[in-house]
């Protein structure tokens, strides 16, 4: 692509939109690690009540920062991997 064509492409995309595109791509490339209770339940396909039950039974570990409970993606994946296969 020559310089004139590059200038045309660059001028066609407003800077704010370009920054938003880069941020969105970065977020997609970096998966979220910490989940809220609602997000963790959705990620596992459980209700929030069922997730609470698994936490109370020490089958899923959660971390706490102040009053916020955070579920680690690796812990959720570990729990899911150890679920029995459907028979």
Question: What is the topological layout?
Answer:
Layout: H1 3-12, H2 15-29, E1 34-35, H3 37-44, H4 48-56, E2 63-65, E3 68-72, H5 73-81
Antiparallel strand pairs: 1-3, 2-3
Describe this structure in words.
There is one protein chain. The protein is mainly alpha-helical. It has helices at 3-12, 15-29, 37-44, 48-56, 73-81; strands at residues 34-35, 63-65, 68-72. The protein has a three-stranded antiparallel sheet with strand order 1-3-2. The longest helix has 15 residues, at 15-29. The termini are far apart. The mean pLDDT is 86.
Assembly annotation: single chain
SSE pattern, N- to C-terminal: HHEHHEEH
- Unreliable runs, pLDDT <50, ≥5 residues? none
- Could you describe the largest sheet, including whether it forms a barrel? 3 strands, antiparallel
